[in-house]
Amino acid sequence: xxxxxxxxxxxxxxxxxxxxxxxxxxxxxxxxxxxxxxxxxxxxxxxxxxxxxxxxxxxxxxxxxxxxxxxxxxxxxxxxxxx
Length: 83
What we know:
- α2 (23-32) links the parallel β1 and β2.
- Strands 1-2 form a two-stranded parallel sheet.
- The protein is mostly helical.
- The radius of gyration is 13 Å and the shape is globular.
- It has helices spanning 2-9, 23-32, 52-72; strands spanning 16-19, 40-43.
């Protein structure tokens, strides 16, 4: 979340990647930073340590959605209720 917030503050298109385990914490962090609508994408937990094949499959599943969202949403908007 913090990386996404910092990227958005620089005016760059942003979609933060947040695992299910930390989704609620992401709400808190985004609200505390004054960016409750920061676009996010919900990932399964855990991602780290899941192996390169699993990560590759995950990337294949979400890449088109992330690209579309990065092209479509102005920075700092959206409901925050990621996909």
